[in-house]
């Protein structure tokens, strides 16, 4: 019996080591759908040796999308849509470094660089995030992979995730991690936030060194949430003022509903 236990322990350590040594790149579509406006971004997850980094929005300039998530020109964006108080489009700024979410599974830390409108913030999560996943019975195919269902609640949203045991690593898009297989798809219960698998390369053809982001204003997660709220509130205030000028009367905007992925720190 003792010998059997030792053999099992050796095999477990062997396969755990294999999982830790797997490197890969996964491409996702990260989409937010706030107030009927879809904003899709191509995103990339790279992982190797207990580290991963999820990134999107790298480049220069600005990308503009209509209500259906179709990219449009600046000329089209300047058109007036009377059904939405003059707003036809949604947009996001590109940045040479982009938005980056770095996870170190060995050191148990998450550091992210996130751009709010045109300002970059650098934040380290104060504690390791335990997603407290609930493993469910659902199974479906995503691409060629058999995926299993899981659920969690995190910072004001309830998420459904699909992960594949075919790739036995704990990585996932954004800050998500900790499932017994690579996370290929995540969506919140309101269909406002989603991460959808597009493609994968394993092993990485040329594995890049995965390091934490370094460019941005260093602040706490609490200060970041407050800054994000204030910046987005200023945009809503400006939209209200513009709508009032066009309509010639006061307009009511729901300031309590500032759209963002993380609604609360609880």
Tags for this model:
266 residues; alpha+beta; two-stranded antiparallel ribbon; 3 helices; 19% helix; globular; disordered N terminus
In short:
With 266 residues, the chain is of the alpha+beta class. 19% of the residues lie in helices and 38% in strands. The chain has one domain: Clam (outer membrane lipoprotein receptor (LolB), chain A), CATH 2.50.20.
Structure description:
This protein is α+β, with helices and mostly antiparallel strands and 266 residues long. It has one domain (2-247): outer membrane lipoprotein receptor (LolB), chain A (Clam), CATH 2.50.20.10. Helix content is 19%, strand content 38%. It has three helices and 14 strands. The protein has helices at 2-21, 74-77, 221-247, and strands at 24-34, 37-48, 51-56, 62-65, 90-93, 99-104, 109-116, 119-124, 134-142, 145-154, 157-164, 182-188, 193-201, 217-218. The strands form two sheets. A twelve-stranded mixed beta sheet has the order 9-10-11-12-13-1-2-3-6-7-8-14. Strands 4-5 form a two-stranded antiparallel sheet. Strand 1 and strand 2 (37-48) form a beta hairpin. Mean pLDDT is 83; it is low at 1-18 and 82-86.
Specify the oligomeric state.
single chain
Overall CATH class: Mainly Beta
Largest sheet composition: 12 strands, mixed
- Termini separation comes to 46 Å
What is the number of domains? 1
> Got a strand count?
14
Helix and strand pattern = HEEEEHEEEEEEEEEEH
Under CATH, the topology can be stated as outer membrane lipoprotein receptor (LolB), chain A
**Widest sheet: strand ordering:** 9-10-11-12-13-1-2-3-6-7-8-14
- Helical/strand content category: alpha+beta
**Rough outline:** globular
Assign the CATH architecture.
Clam
Radius of gyration: 21 Å
The pLDDT mean sits at: 83
| CATH homologous superfamily identity | Lipoprotein localisation LolA/LolB/LppX
Q: Fraction of residues in helices?
A: 10-25%
- What's the number of helices? 3
Stretches where pLDDT is under 50 for at least 5 consecutive residues are 1-18, 82-86
